[in-house]
Specification:
Elements lengths: L1 H5 L7 E4 L8 E4 L13 E8 L4 E7 L9 H12 L16 E8 L8 E6 L2 E6 L2 E7 L2 H19 L4 H6 L14 H8 L2 H10 L3 E3 L7 H7 L19 H8 L4 H6 L10 H4 L4 H12 L1 E2 L1 H8 L5 H11 E4 L2 E4 L1 H4 L13 H17 L2 E2 L1 H8 L3 H11 E4 L3 E4 L5 H6 L1 H22 L3 H4 L16 H32 L36 E2 L2 E2 L14 H22 L1 E3 H13 L13 H10 L2 E4 L11 H4 L1 E4 L7 H11 L7 H12 L5 H8 L1
């Protein structure tokens, strides 16, 4: 209140908004001239404008009689530009620099907050500006002088060579044919600086007529700066609350934020990062860092962050390699993008980078030539993959950049096991795409390194399995007691003694455990942070109490039934891959982790109503035995059961059949003519 009393209101002024010159009014800012030479000394000779670019070019006459004008300098400039001869193309026809050209540039990209104001008889009239242009001298005449100077020098060097000698001079001409332009190449060309400059140059000049300050036309146009109607109905923009009026006068500065220099893509503001959701924070960090231990990630996210939530989010954007997290390939190479080096689509890049990541789950060293030979990608792309997660060592290859994180593996065995299942699925895909041989899918023997893997003998392996069984014994006993209580409640007399449960120390079952090619020949190798023996099945060799066996069978039957209702036909190899992915999605301690053999899986497939189709594949096929075993759902309960059975019998006689043969056979067996859409549906 004291400040308001010290600064009283002297006068209230009515403000009006003039609209007559809306989107037509420009503000020109002229360069500062010497104090002895005012703009009255200058006369506008011509003016022209490019409306789309808001570019103006003014030509002004210079008062050569002014005492501040240097006549000798003006004559020298005219001589350098036009030479001794004068014609219509001369810039200075009076042999004297008597005019100067000014070109404009935009002073501000957003002028919505600027207006021209006229004060008259206690009223303030505002007209919004459409543009603010700064005029600067143009020195194109100097370029013209340089061009003429070079022409004179070329003429002097050429001498008096005759026309006949010029005709005898034969020049070789190279003819080039341009390739068809792709859509991506066209977009890059349209966004290039040369293309934009060319488009700006193609816009035609619009010539203007200049009216002086005291001209009657100028006086008439100046009246449009005043509001034509003083009624409040025509000035509704100014009938606002004080806060709205202040917001109109000073809107948020959007263009200033855009004009700020952008930080490099690999530089993050931690203050801004922590305002984002946790999933976005982890994605941005992993996308920039590429490889990170879990402990470092927790330190970057700040104190108080829930580690369980971080583990849930990190698995969405990264994969576990040697106990460390490496960003997923599809995060670095999103869909519909391509390589900046070779133009290869993102799908191929993701597949190649996944191969490099998978190789590092097998060994700490990777050879660049081997990766390039398998993936068939250009050397620049392969180098990018390797630089994301490894360091080059002279005469050795590329070594994974971080040491093996044993602490994380010990603290989170469930995460490690789930990631291992995912890597098994990725390995199966890579083997199909790249036709990997055994030497590619088997880790090489590691040389002496700083983190040397343990050598485990057969006896030690058995002892470790015993210890693991003892750890799970408590859980098995709880399940047994629960089953026993349920049996008593149902008046089922079944007496079982926990002491009767024998833990077999060595495998005696004829059933072989499910084959996983990632383990073959690598008993001492590292598989995604786990030694092969540590990831062995803790299922008591597949022998569980009676109640647990029933639960495992129910879970396995539910998986097989739902899978074949979606796929209808599967090879054993594909079924095992889908089962591994299903295991990876289950919580730790699930009954299916007790160990499922190939025989159990195949028996369950046959028990659910499926049949094995003996497809006569050619003897020279390169498919594995699991890929040659084909199972199909015989009865799905839909209208196409009969058609599907006929089709399966056809393929049991020949592995390759023509479409017209299939359509004819279906029509004969089913007694009806099927159209193309129905045949396509059955084949699909």
């Amino acid at each position: 209140m004291a400040n308001e009393e010290d600064d009283p209101i002297i006068q209230e002024i009515d403000v009006f908004l003039a609209r007559s010159l809306l989107e037509k009014l420009y503000l020109f800012q002229y360069p500062i001239r010497p104090a002895s030479m005012t703009y009255d000394d200058v006369t506008h000779l011509s003016a022209k404008i490019k409306p789309k670019q808001q570019k103006v070019e003014l030509e002004m006459a210079i008062d050569t009689l002014n005492p501040n004008y240097c006549r000798s300098k003006g004559e020298q400039i005219a001589l350098n530009v036009d030479g001794t001869c004068t014609d219509e193309t001369s810039t200075y026809s009076s042999k004297l620099m008597d005019k100067q050209t000014f070109c404009s540039s935009q002073a501000a990209s957003n002028v919505s907050r600027y207006a021209a104001a006229v004060y008259k008889k206690g009223e303030l009239h505002l007209t919004p500006l459409h543009g603010i242009l700064q005029l600067r001298p143009s020195f194109t005449y100097l370029d013209k002088a340089d061009a003429k100077h070079r022409e004179r020098e070329a003429a002097n060097e050429g001498g008096d060579s005759s026309q006949d000698e010029a005709e005898d001079d034969v020049k070789q001409i190279t003819v080039r044919f341009s390739r068809p332009e792709t859509e991506q190449a066209r977009q890059r060309r349209v966004q290039s600086y040369e293309f934009l400059q060319k488009r700006q140059a193609e816009e035609h000049w619009v010539h203007l007529h200049y009216y002086g300050l005291k001209d009657s036309r100028s006086e008439h146009e100046r009246q449009y700066l005043f509001s034509q109607g003083h009624g409040f109905a025509e000035n509704t923009e100014l009938i606002k609350s004080p806060s709205e009026y202040l917001m109109m006068l000073m809107p948020p500065s959007i263009e200033e934020e855009n004009d700020k220099p952008m930080a490099p893509s690999n530089v993050l503001s931690m203050a801004q990062l922590r305002t984002l959701p946790l999933a976005d924070q982890i994605k941005i960090l992993m996308k920039n860092v590429k490889v990170m231990p879990f402990a470092n990630l927790m330190s970057l996210l700040g104190s108080g962050t829930d580690s369980t939530a971080v583990l849930r989010c990190i698995q969405q954007v990264a994969m576990l390699v040697q106990g460390n997290w490496v960003v997923k390939s599809d995060v670095l190479y999103p869909k519909d993008t391509s390589s900046p080096h070779s133009g290869v689509p993102a799908e191929v890049l993701c597949r190649g980078r996944d191969f490099v990541m998978w190789k590092f789950t097998q060994d700490r060293w990777v050879v660049r030539k081997e990766v390039a030979a398998v993936t068939k990608l250009c050397p620049e792309d392969v180098k990018d993959f390797l630089e994301h997660m490894s360091v080059a060592r002279i005469n050795k290859g590329w070594e994974f950049m971080l040491p093996y994180d044993e602490d994380f593996v010990k603290k989170h065995p469930d995460i490690v096991q789930r990631q291992h299942m995912l890597w098994m699925g990725i390995q199966a895909k890579l083997e199909k795409v790249y036709n990997l041989l055994k030497e590619h899918s088997t880790p090489k023997k590691q040389e002496a390194q700083s983190a040397r893997p343990l050598l485990v003998s057969g006896e030690q392996r058995v002892n470790m399995a015993k210890a693991k069984v003892k750890q799970n014994y408590g859980q098995l006993e709880k399940e047994f007691q629960k089953q026993k209580a349920e049996m008593k409640s149902n008046d089922i007399s079944a007496k079982m003694d926990v002491s009767n449960i024998r833990i077999k120390e060595e495998p005696v079952s004829d059933e072989e455990p499910m084959d996983t090619s990632a383990y073959k020949g690598m008993n001492n190798g590292i598989v995604n942070g786990l030694h092969a023996v540590e990831d062995s099945m803790d299922s008591l060799n597949g022998h569980l109490p009676g109640g647990c066996i029933d639960r495992v069978a129910q879970e396995l039957k539910a998986f097989v039934s739902s899978t074949f209702k979606k796929q209808f036909v599967l090879t054993l190899s594909e079924l095992k891959r889908l089962f591994n992915l299903h295991l990876a999605s289950l919580p730790p301690g699930h009954t299916l982790f007790s160990g499922i053999s190939d025989k159990m899986l195949q028996d369950m497939v046959l028990d659910t109503g499926c049949k094995q189709i003996l497809v006569p594949f050619p003897p020279q096929t390169a498919a594995s035995p699991d890929e040659l075993k084909v199972y199909a759902l015989w009865e799905a309960g839909d209208t196409y059961d009969q058609h599907r059975q006929v089709l399966l019998e056809i393929f049991s006689k020949n592995y390759r059949v023509r479409r017209n043969v299939i359509q004819t056979q279906l029509s004969q067996e089913c007694g009806e003519d099927l159209n193309k859409q129905e045949v396509d549906r059955v084949l699909k």
